[in-house]
Amino acid sequence: MGYSQFDHPASGVLFADDIVTRIDITLLQDDLDKILAPENSNLNDEYPATFIFSQGSITDTVENVGFRLRGNTSRQSSKPSFKISFNTFQPGRQYRDVEKLNLNGEHNDPTIARSKTSWQVMADQGLHASRTNHIKLYINEEYRGLYLNVEHIDEEFLKKRFDDWNGNLYKCLWPADLTYISDNPIAYQFQNGGRRAYDLKTNKEQDDYSDLAHLIDVINNTPTNDLPCTLESIFDIQSYLKLVATDIFIGNWDGHLFNKNNFYLYHDPCTQKFLMIPYDLDNTFGIDWFGVDWSTSSLDFWIENHSGDRPLIDRLMSIQKYRNNVEGYLEELSQQWENNDYQSQFFALRDLLIPHRESDIYASLDYGYTVNDFKNNYTHGLPGHTKQGLVEFVGKRINSLSDQLDSEDQSVPAVEHYTIDRTESTITLSISLKFIDDENEVRIHTTIDNSMSSVSLITANNEGLYEIVFPIDNQTDQYLNWHLSISYGIAGVTRYPTCESIATRLNAPPPPSIVINEVVSSNTSGIQDEAGEYPDWIELYNRSDEVVNLGELYLTDKLDKLNLWQLPDYDLLPNSYVIIYADSDGHQGSLHTNFKLNKDGEFLALIDSKSNLNGIIDSITLPSLDSNQSYGRLPNGVGDFEELTFQSPNGNNESISSIGSNDDHLQISISPNPVSQVLNIQSSEGGTVILVSATGSMLYTSQIENLHSIDVSEYSAGVYFLKISDTNGESDTQKFIKR
After folding, report:
1. Helix (H) and strand (E) counts for the chain?
2. Order of strands across the sheet with 169-172?
3. Which of 96, 278, 508, 657 is 20 to 30 Å from 443 by CA-CA measure?
4. What is the pLDDT of residue 611?
5. Is the domain of 434 the same as that of 493?
6. DSSP letters of 80-149?
7. Are residues 683 and 608 in the same domain?
8. What are phi and psi of 371, to 5 degrees?
9. Domain boundary among 607, 624, 656
10. Domain that holds residue 493
């Protein structure tokens, strides 16, 4: 675990950008007319439609999706933007792991490439950026033009990027300037233009703005000398500084810095820190409505041009080390673009889009852009709001930054991210640093249980990471506290974290009260959930004599994401069980995880609370399991895992296993199987028959002869077991499925 580097999700089929995908929308013509009627341009009414996705050999059709307008100024354009919602009329439904798509017309950009390029720059910088690609859009079989498909920022976006995606996500639109209003959280629920400036998109039922109010209070009211310590503990300053530099480089004037607009704030439950996520990047790379040459704009211009109503950037840039970091990121961006053949990349994108732009008549209706304008604006400016072409803008940006930034100024080192990896005997701490050269010395200060302190000089390995290994002592309960000190310049030292140290458990946690007791990784006909589905499941067991609340524990199937899914606030009684459905269907209930199990085998762990530094309470490595095969502890709750004869959800593995004992001397056959009405039994001997449910409950018992029938019509669908024992104690067991 740790403050980990963000891995941008793979493009996948949905956002493949080496091909222009076709999307077809069909809906009633009357509904389309209502959507496009000028008097309805500000409405968000959704209409049922059919969605068809075509890419190479792939053709997918999704019925009954929601279709509506989206955006701001684009709503009144001849080439408006649209939103597709797969879950509007069928709650919880997804298409290729997303619930919504944003199709942007890019009507004010002749190249239809600025937003796409900006999102790619953000992703390349390691920022949380939407995935994008170009698509050709058809509505009721009419070609509506070349659009940009932009990943929607919502819970599904968070799931792909964060260990814990259950935090508060705020969409921040004008005038979201992060200025202090009041210590009352409700004060930040104010509206502008019919919607909240800080609009909470998750956890809507709670509607609790306390975390946002606290962040804004700290930003505005903390004394400058205390600001690094206080703000660093609740806000990811380093990723924000990188975002600031990236916005300035691409000239994104419609975001937080210049227009107090178009960003998200996410409060990550894992780190307990807010971070800023960019949004809506079409006004970039030289698009201008103010008479400003954004390609030559300086850092001072961005800081000073807003009359003091941007407290976050104002206060951070008054602290020299943060300003140096922004300048360092700007210099790095400039060098990256100068060293890459950006002209060829722009031309390759233009060549990919040309055939689809040539037949896009709607792209010419708002500003009169011709196909030649589309081609030429990649290199040169046009009259109006695009006075600079893409290649022209980047060239001037590189040259202007070269003049503005003093390369002789000593950059202040900064921690980009760190990871903590465990084995049974060691903990390895790996740290990635920015703005480090041979003159810097990096020291790690460690303390074990506030007594064994040491300072060690550490150097970069072949991968550029600063790495140190600590042995684990499982005989004692030990905690490691650490921080870095990094020298720079003349007697300059920076510390990370700025004030507090970072703590991690050195040893394994004490024996757990709660254990993973049974797992079914391919449930096709066993127990059902509330929706009548057959999800994979995990059984937890409280083997202690006390009630244990599960609300601070986690389940995960990824060693590098220990906080993957937080358990609900649930009291588990002594000697009791709870079934967790591993189906990625969190909308179905609090006992449904955000991950699925792999029937071919994988890692699974129960993780301790944040206060106990997320130690691994219990873990197993699942083998490859057949459908409906249960894997559980024998003896129950304490033994090793093995394949069980029966599933025993919410039951003792030993008792259900004992039912499954077989004897070669007594054999039974049952028919039909599956069965819906009457089950016929043929036994080599008479004796006692017992009918048992998959949960271990005895449903029926009787003395039988060689032939016997049982009416099972009243039983619910699922898996059941028959056991017949003769007078000599010999037995045989059969499984059957009730339809």
Report:
1. 14, 39
2. 198-200, 169-172, 263-268, 273-278
3. 508
4. 66
5. yes
6. -EEEEETTSSSTT--BTTBSEEEEE--TT-TTS-HHHHHHHHHHHTT-----EEEEEEEETTEEEEEEEE
7. no
8. -65, -35
9. 656
10. 414-505
